[in-house]
Design brief:
The protein has 16 helices and 13 strands. The chain is α/β, with parallel strands linked by helices and 357 residues long.
C-alpha cells in the first residue's frame, strides 16, 4: 500500500474491541496530519467519546444509500473498519468502499468466526479488505485454513493491549485492603449460543450458570467480594434479578455499569474470572491473574487463552475453587511477560502497514 499524507481517513466500527485499537491507530495517523472521522454504532460509541475522536452515530442497519451518501461526503482515501460477525454494519461499509476503489484495512481482535465476519451466507456476498491486521501467527494460520490469502494478512499485534500495558506500568498501585476482589467479566453467551442442547450452537454453558457457580464459591470466601461486569449488550436489570437468588452472599456482590475503562477494573481486581472474553487476556496484560470458566463445555468453541495455555481453565465446577485459590495467591508477572508477544510494537507495525511505500 502506498499512502501519502495528509490522508483522509474514515473509521467504521461496531464492536468495542476493534474500536479500542482503531482509535489508537487513528490518533497516531492524526499526529502525522491525517484527517480523521468515524462512523459507529452500538457500544463502541463510548470509545470514540472517551478518546475524543470525531464521529457520528448511525443505526446498525444503515442502508446502502446512506453509506454511499456518507462516502460521497467524506471522500476518504482510506477506510479502517472493525470485523464483527453479529451484523453487517462494517461489512457493508467495507463492500461499498472497495467498489469505489477506496483502500480498506480491517482489524481483527479475536480468534473466531472468520467466515462470518467477511461472508454473508444468505446473499453469497463476500466483503474483504485490502489488508487484514491480525494479532498473531495463530490467527493468521486459522485464517489460512479458512481460505484467506496470505497477501491480505499482516501480523501486527493488538495496539489496545499495548496501550493497556503502557498505562498499567505508569499507574500501578499496590492492592492494600481488607478483602480480595474477584471480577467476573460476563458475555451474552445465552443470546448468542442458547441455553440448552436444543440449540445446535449451545456451548454447554452460559453466563447465568457461571454466575451461579461463582456465587456458590463465594459462600466459602467471606474475605472476598465479587464484582460483576456485564457485557455492553447485556441488561443490568437481568443481572440484578439473578442477585435475588444469592441472598446468603448478597452483601458481597457488586455490579459495575457505566462507561468506565477496563484498566481501573482490571488493576483493582485480585483475579478476573470469565468464560472466553478478551478481558481475560487484558487482565494478564496489566498483571492481574485470570481464570477461564467453561463448565461442561462441549468443545464447539476453543478460547485462545485456553488453547495457548495463557489462561488457566476450569471445565468442571469442582476445578473452579482451586484455580481461584491459586490465582489469589500467585503473581501474574510471568504470564504478563508471555502475553507480551500479542502486543509489543503493535501500533508502530499498524502504521508501517498503512504508510508502506
Amino acid at each position: 500500500m502506498t499512502n501519502d499524507f495528509p490522508l483522509n481517513v474514515l473509521l467504521v466500527t461496531f464492536q468495542t474491541g476493534c474500536a479500542n485499537s482503531i482509535v489508537l491507530i487513528a490518533k497516531a495517523l492524526r499526529q502525522r496530519g491525517a484527517r480523521i472521522h468515524g462512523v459507529c454504532a452500538g457500544a463502541c460509541v463510548r470509545v470514540f467519546e472517551r478518546e475524543a475522536v470525531s464521529h457520528q452515530v448511525l443505526d446498525v442497519n444503515v442502508s446502502d444509500a446512506q453509506i454511499d451518501a456518507l462516502l460521497d461526503a467524506q471522500a476518504p482515501d482510506l477506510v479502517i473498519t472493525g470485523s464483527n460477525a453479529a451484523n453487517r454494519f462494517e461489512f457493508n461499509f467495507r463492500l461499498r468502499a472497495r467498489q469505489r476503489g477506496v483502500q480498506v484495512i480491517t482489524t481483527l481482535d479475536y480468534w473466531s468466526a472468520y467466515q462470518g465476519r467477511f461472508h454473508d451466507n444468505e446473499t453469497g456476498v463476500t466483503s474483504l479488505p485490502d489488508k487484514l491486521l491480525v494479532t498473531d501467527a495463530v490467527m493468521r494460520d486459522e485464517l489460512r485454513k479458512a481460505g484467506f490469502k496470505d497477501a491480505r494478512i499482516e501480523i501486527v499485534g493488538n495496539p489496545y493491549f499495548e496501550h493497556l500495558a503502557l498505562e498499567a506500568s505508569a499507574t500501578r498501585n499496590p492492592r492494600i485492603r481488607a478483602y480480595k476482589r474477584i471480577l467476573f467479566t460476563s458475555q451474552p453467551i445465552a443470546a448468542l449460543f442458547g441455553t440448552s442442547s436444543k440449540n445446535p450452537r449451545f456451548l454447554g454453558y452460559e453466563e447465568g450458570g457461571v454466575f451461579d457457580a461463582l456465587v456458590d464459591d463465594l459462600k466459602a470466601r467471606p474475605e472476598c467480594r465479587l464484582y460483576v461486569k456485564p457485557h455492553p449488550r447485556e441488561d443490568l436489570t437481568v443481572w440484578r434479578g439473578r442477585l435475588k437468588k444469592a441472598k446468603a452472599v448478597e452483601k458481597q456482590i457488586f455490579f459495575i455499569g457505566g462507561r468506565g475503562r477496563s484498566l481501573g477494573l482490571l488493576q483493582a481486581a485480585d483475579v478476573v474470572v470469565g468464560m472466553t472474553s478478551n478481558m481475560l487476556l487484558e487482565a494478564l496484560v496489566v498483571g492481574t491473574a485470570a481464570v477461564s470458566f467453561q463448565p461442561d463445555t462441549n468443545g464447539k468453541f476453543e478460547f485462545y487463552g485456553t488453547s495457548s495455555g495463557l489462561v488457566p481453565t476450569a471445565r468442571k465446577i469442582d476445578r473452579l475453587p482451586p484455580l481461584i485459590d491459586e490465582a489469589l495467591t500467585r503473581s501474574a508477572t510471568t504470564v504478563r511477560e508471555k502475553v507480551g508477544v500479542l502486543y509489543k510494537g503493535a501500533l508502530a507495525r499498524c502504521i508501517d502497514v498503512i504508510t508502506a511505500k
